[in-house]
Amino acid sequence: MCAVIAGDRLRDPALLPIARKIEAGERLSGSDAATLYRSPDLLGVGYLADAVNIAKNGRVVTFASNQHINPTNVCVLRKTCVFCGYARLPKEEGAYRYTMEQVMAEAERARDGMTREFHIVGGLDMQAGLEYYTTMFRMLKRELPHVHIKALTAVEIAHLARIEKMTWRDVLIALREAGLDTMPGGGAETFSAAVREQIADKKLGGADYIGVHRAAHELGIRSNCTMLYGHVETIEDRVAHLTMLRDLQDETGGFLAFIPLAYHPDDNELGKKLGLQGRTTTGFDDLRNLAVGRLFLDNFQHVKTHWIMVTPFLSQTALAFGVNDLEGTVVREKIYHAVGAQTPQGLSLDAILKLIRGAQRIPAERDSFYQIIRRFDEVAARPEAA
Ligand code: SF4
Q: Radius of gyration over alpha carbons of the chain, in Å?
């Protein structure tokens, strides 16, 4: 179904040819994406993204009930990912690596709760090899077989392949046999080599991030993808990044959702170096990244807002900017809180329903493949009810 656009809603004439392309179902170019990023008419960009989203997903906004488990913060890249406040060297204060008993103790919360997904990511820990994760996944599946395992970023998969001297594909096969269901999208940062040189010198490069996801998709393992914005990247870097994601999606169709991630400048080297501490990304930029993602990534069904990074209130606003999925009832998130995120560590089901209904959308709980499990059809009578 094509989006229907009312041209008089657009105050920036540069958006008009883009609106016509969207109406005609034509793909946007990189230069269109740059125009969307630069347009002073944020509401116009949001209006276009909302029209496209409504045509694709209707007024339903989904969320998943998930629980984060971050099993180790020990990371060999501690000194070189200068935007990260989570990682520690093995003997550094605050370093931890969970035993299997500790993982299970955290996971136990899922037994009686509504958790349907474990989101498991951590550092590149030399002492946490393939067996550490295959043992973990087998235990989780044995004890809590109803909970989906979304685990290990492309960076972690490549790290396991390196230390085990295996291919990405063989690591993925072993993890899948142990219980891995899907992969999260973290670790993408911004693909540009010049950006990576400044923020994550030694981290897996953009082409390899894409390569690991391609290997996963070829095995039938679906994944998400991300882009970290709001640090040293340019608009052209963002567009190039989105283009690489769109190209892989054309090739494999394996991405479930795109999730732009806002850079948090507190408690990390990069924030100090750039003098950004205490200054998070602006609401304008947060909304624009979501809207441009929706418009440019025409082969993605789902665009997700991560309230942990941008606050629940901005995520609620984002539901009118092309977003159809809200990060769920997360339990005990550690990574973004380590760099200064002031958001709660979890939102209750009631709070999520209230946010979505307050945006005049219909909440629906989904599974990890974005299939709807149950809808909550009443919509708030008044927007201010949120
Ligand atoms: S961003 Fe990831 S790879 Fe880099 S230091 Fe932090 S935990 Fe390690």
A: 20
- Neighbour count for residue 51 (Cβ, 10 Å): 22
Mutate to test the pocket of ligand 1, among 96, 120, 155 (most ligand atoms within 8 A of CB): 155
SS3 for 308?
helix
| Per-residue pLDDT at 337 | 52
Is the CB of residue 151 below 6 angstroms from any atom belonging to ligand 1?
A: no
CATH superfamily of 62-385: Aldolase class I (3.20.20.70)
Task: Report, as an integer, the average pLDDT of 315-322.
Answer: 97
- Which is nearest to 272 in space by CA: 189, 187, 340, 333? 340
Domain boundaries, given as residue ranges, for the chain: 7-53, 62-385
Cα distance between residue 312 and residue 306, in whole Å: 8
Residue 124, both tokens: 């590149």
This prediction has a pTM of: 0.93
> Which residue's CA is minimally distant from atom 4 of ligand 1?
81
Identify the burial level of 85 via C-beta atoms within 10 angstroms of its C-beta, where 0-12 means exposed, 13-18 middle and 19 or more buried. buried
Tell me what the mean pLDDT of segment 282-309 comes to. Answer: 96
Please tell me if the CB atom of residue 87 comes closer than 6 angstroms to any atom of ligand 1.
Answer: yes
Give me the pLDDT at residue 261, please: 94
Q: How far apart are CA 189 and CA 205, in angstroms?
A: 10
Residue nearest to atom 7 of ligand 1 (CA): 123
Model confidence at 386, in pLDDT bands (50, 70, 90)? very low
With a 6 Å cutoff on the Cβ, whether 132 touches ligand 1 is no
- Give me ligand 1 centre to Cα 19, in Å: 39
Partners of 305 in beta bridges: 326
Has residue 179 got a pLDDT over 50? yes
**What does the alpha-carbon distance between residue 335 and residue 45 come to, in Å, rounded to a whole number?**
31
Measured in Å, residue 202 CA sits from the centre of ligand 1 at 10
